[in-house]
């Protein structure tokens, strides 16, 4: 098992990105060797990096549990809104970041945004603005919303009206949005109608718009605002981050993968407009009530697990039934 151990040592220090196959290969090795503790260590590590598993991986896990560890495992459909598992009678969990992890993430984003003295000043100004006007319930990646359904390469411009409909949707539900957009979208040369300019003035009056400075990536601003709002949120309120950008860009890899994936799973919201018409209402894919990710069935038991399928939505492998395999 020397190689697998080395791989996991590296992964522990985040030197390499481990793939799903690396984990299942290790599970097979440790399982076949009867190394129970190692199997559970691999699962704990895997659960932080690989959220859903292919059918092949689920089969590898199932075999490890039943054949090698003499534990039960069975495929079951679970509705992540309801959470209950019919096989073990336990509920899926909602796994969010601890305060310390949120602080860690904020410090990290802050560090990345401060590439120079000017940028550091701009970011401090932003944080000051946030503490005066926040926290917000929903952070909206304005450019991502405004360019939805648009083809900038064919001369389409950002739709301020589309952004406004998203803002209104949340306001109508008593949720306070924060719109983060780069300053170039508000310059004198920006393609805006009179009605667009009126909307922008309204956003400014309502203190829900933050226009990010030139020569800085607006991504760090909305991500910081979203994580900060999560940190400030009172119990029972849920902070949302609206964007279809999956943040797979290389620069997001500077963030701690574990914290970022964890935050994204609980707070990310994808949006959709059926068409470009002025009356087209946005629709949203909110995070499910319970986390759709590989998880311990109860936090204090390393041997009881639920694994969601990446191939079949709603299908899970329940390895949380106590007693010998049937
Ligand atoms: Zn179960």
For this entry, give a set of tags.
11 helices; binds zinc ion; single chain; 2 domains; alpha/beta; four-stranded antiparallel sheet; elongated; 43% helix; 326 residues; Serine Threonine Protein Phosphatase 5, Tetratricopeptide repeat; six-stranded mixed sheet; 10 strands; Rossmann fold
Task: Report a brief summary of the structure.
The chain has helices spanning 2-12, 20-32, 36-49, 55-68, 99-113, 117-133, 142-146, 160-171, 194-205, 218-232, 257-267; strands spanning 74-77, 138-141, 177-182, 209-212, 240-242, 268-273, 282-285, 295-296, 305-308, 315-319. With 326 residues, it is an alpha/beta fold.
Describe what this molecule looks like in 3D.
The chain is of the alpha/beta class and 326 residues long. The protein has two domains: 2-94 and 294-319, Serine Threonine Protein Phosphatase 5, Tetratricopeptide repeat; 99-285, Rossmann fold. Helices cover 43% and strands 13% of the residues. The protein is built from eleven helices and ten strands. It has helices at 2-12, 20-32, 36-49, 55-68, 99-113, 117-133, 142-146, 160-171, 194-205, 218-232, 257-267; strands at residues 74-77, 138-141, 177-182, 209-212, 240-242, 268-273, 282-285, 295-296, 305-308, 315-319. The strands form two sheets. Strands 4-3-2-5-6-7 form a six-stranded mixed β-sheet, sandwiched between helices. Strands 1-10-9-8 form a four-stranded antiparallel β-sheet, with helices on one face. Strand 6 and strand 7 (282-285) form a beta hairpin. The longest helix has 17 residues, at 117-133. The protein is elongated and about 70 Å long. The relative contact order is 0.19. The model has no long low-confidence stretch (mean pLDDT 90). It binds zinc ion. Residues 85, 87-88, 90, 306, 318, 320 line the site of zinc ion.
């Amino acid at each position: 098992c020397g190689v697998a151990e080395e791989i996991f040592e590296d992964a522990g220090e985040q030197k390499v990105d481990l793939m799903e196959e690396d984990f299942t290969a290790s599970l097979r090795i440790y399982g076949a060797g009867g190394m129970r503790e190692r199997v559970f260590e691999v699962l704990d590590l895997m659960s932080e990096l690989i959220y859903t598993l292919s059918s092949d991986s689920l089969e590898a896990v199932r075999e490890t549990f039943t054949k090698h560890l003499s534990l039960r495992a069975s495929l079951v459909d679970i509705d992540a809104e309801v959470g209950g598992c019919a096989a073990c009678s336990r509920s899926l969990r909602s796994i969010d970041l601890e305060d310390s992890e949120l602080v860690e993430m904020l410090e990290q984003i802050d560090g990345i945004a401060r590439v120079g003295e000017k940028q550091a000043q701009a970011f401090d100004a932003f944080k000051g603005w946030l503490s005066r006007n926040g926290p917000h319930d929903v952070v909206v990646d304005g450019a991502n919303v405004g360019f939805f359904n648009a083809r900038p390469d064919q001369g389409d411009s950002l739709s301020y009206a589309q952004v406004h409909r998203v803002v209104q949707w949340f306001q109508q539900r008593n949720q306070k949005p924060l719109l983060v957009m780069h300053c170039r979208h508000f310059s004198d040369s920006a393609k805006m109608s009179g009605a667009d300019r009126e909307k922008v003035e309204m956003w400014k009056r309502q203190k829900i718009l933050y226009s990010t400075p030139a020569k800085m990536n607006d991504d760090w601003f909305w991500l910081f605002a979203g994580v900060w709002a999560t940190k400030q949120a009172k119990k029972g309120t849920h902070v949302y981050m609206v964007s279809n950008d999956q943040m797979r860009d290389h620069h997001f890899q500077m963030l701690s993968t574990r914290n970022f994936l964890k935050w994204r799973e609980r707070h990310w919201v994808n949006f959709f407009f059926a068409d470009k018409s002025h009356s087209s209402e946005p629709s949203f894919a909110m995070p499910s009530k319970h986390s759709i990710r590989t998880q311990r069935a109860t936090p204090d038991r390393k041997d009881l697990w639920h694994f969601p399928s990446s191939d079949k939505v709603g299908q899970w492998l329940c390895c949380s039934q106590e007693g010998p395999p049937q």
